[in-house]
Amino acid sequence: MPLILLLVGVGAVWVVYLLVVVFFPFQGEFWDARGKFGDMFGALNALFTACAFAALIYSIRLEYKASLRQELHSALSAQLDTLVQLYAMPKEQREPVWQAILAARGGPSEDFPIEKAIALQIEYMDRLMSGEDIGSVPTYGRPPKD
Questions:
Q1: Number of other residues whose CB lies within 10 A of the CB of residue 80
Q2: Cα(35)–Cα(54) distance, rounded to whole angstroms?
Q3: Quick one: three-class SS letters along 28-94?
Q4: What count of other Cβ atoms lies within 10 Å of the Cβ of residue 75?
């Protein structure tokens, strides 16, 4: 709907311009005077071009943010799926794997339960889905690098 209104507005400006050029009484020869009148709109044309360029830059920025958001969403989803599958395993199978994750360099700590890691992943997924800009995501219980 906003695009249609914008196009209608541009069309209306063109119609008004055409009516002014044809019916406004200018001094001098008919087309010479109207040509000088049309040349006055060069600055307006530059303004519209600058606005279009700014809109292009803004749309590129929005696309970049959407791409980054999709990448973070994919990473969060994959990690959350892995944690949930690990949690669904019997405790005697899950514990050695979880302890290896905790003991890895940069891991959270020895007393970090898998339930808390899952809750952290879900919290970041909710923040991302609510539109918040997050720079990085937690990795299997490791705090993010914000």
A1: 18
A2: 29
A3: CCHHHHHHHHHHCCHHHHHHHHHHHHHHHHHHHHHHHHHHHHHHHHHHHHHHHHHHHHHHHCCHHHH
A4: 17
User: Residue holding tokens 């943010």?
Assistant: 65
Token pair of 71, please? 């990448």
The answer to whether the pTM exceeds 0.90 is no
Write the pLDDT tens digit of every residue in 130-140.
988 887 777 77
Which stretch of DSSP H or E encloses residue 95?
A: helix 91-103
Q: Which residues of 32-59 are buried (b: 16+ CB within 10 A; e: fewer)?
A: eebeeeeeeeeeeeeeeeeeeeeeeeee
Query: Which candidate, 13, 82, 19, 93, places its Cα nearest to that of 48?
Result: 13
Q: 58: which 2 tokens?
A: 């803004």
**pLDDT greater than 70 at residue 1:** no
- Shortest CA distance to 145 belongs to which of 129, 134, 132? 134
Query: Mean pLDDT across the stretch 116-140?
Result: 85
Rounded-to-10 torsion of CA 68, 70, 74, 77:
110
Number of Cβ atoms within 10 Å of the Cβ of 101: 20
115, 80 contact by CB (below 8 A): no
